[in-house]
Amino acid sequence: MRVLLIEDDTALGAAIRDQIAADGHSVDWVNRLDQAGDAIVAAAYDLVLLDLMLPDGLGVPFLKGLRGRGDVTPVMILTALDQVSDRIAGLNAGADDYMVKPFDLAELSARIGSVARRYAGNPNPNITLGPLAVDLAARSVALNGKPVALTAREWVLFEAFLQRPAQLLSKAQLEERLYSFDTEIDSNAIEVHVSRLRKKLGAHVIETERGLGYRLGQP
C-alpha cells in the first residue's frame, strides 16, 4: 500500500516509517497538517496514519474535513490521548482504528493489514487461487502446499492484485503502491517484480494487457 504518515515526533515517526517500509509498503512522512493536505492532493493513498496533536492544528478537525469532502481513504489514529472520550471523538470523526501510544510496532502492522482487508471487501485473510494458498494476515503464500518465499516488495505487489482481482492496474498505479515520493524508480522495476512473481507462483499468475497494465490471472 501507499501510506501517508502524519507524525511530528521524529523518533517515533522514523520507527513507524521503517516498520511500514520493512513490510514492503511505500511511506510518505509529513509532520504538519498543511503538508498532509498537500500530499493528499498530490497522491492517491491507501491508508493515512494520523497523530492528533500536530504543530499546526488538531487531527480530529482535519479528519472531519477529509470525510466532509467525501474522502473515504482509511484513517488510523495514532495518539497519546487515551481517554474514552478521545477515542469516541476520533472514531465518530471517521477514523477506522485508534491506537494509543506507546504501541507495539508489530501490532501496528497487523492492524494496518486488517484495515486494508476490510476496505478491499474481503476481511477473510485466507484466499485460495488455484494451487496457491494465501494467508494475508501472515503475509505468506504456498504453491501446491509448499511455502514460497517472497520479498517484501514482491508480496505488496501480489497483494495489490489480490485486493483488486478483476481490475486492470497500470504501471503508474503499481509504482505508487511500492514507492514513496523521494524514491528513485528504475524504469523497468515493475516489470522485474512481475517477472519474479511469475517465476515463483506460476507463469499466468499475472496477466499483461500490453500498453495498459496488469491484472490477476490464474497460476
Automatic annotation (TrEMBL):
Keyword Transcription: yes
DNA-binding region(s), chain positions: 124-218
PROSITE patterns documented for this protein: OMPR_PHOB, RESPONSE_REGULATORY
Domain OmpR/PhoB-type: 124-218
4-aspartylphosphate PTM sites in chain numbering: D51
Gene Ontology biological-process annotations: regulation of DNA-templated transcription
Assigned GO CC terms: cytosol; protein-DNA complex
GO molecular function per UniProt: phosphorelay response regulator activity; transcription cis-regulatory region binding
Cited SUPFAM superfamilies: CheY-like
Keywords: DNA-binding, Phosphoprotein, Transcription, Transcription regulation, Two-component regulatory system
Classification via Pfam families: Response_reg, Trans_reg_C
Record's keyword annotation contains Transcription: yes
Residue ranges of every copy of the Response regulatory domain listed in the record: 2-116
PANTHER family to which the protein is assigned, alphabetical: REGULATOR OF RPOS, TWO-COMPONENT RESPONSE REGULATOR ORR33
Protein name: Two-component system response regulator
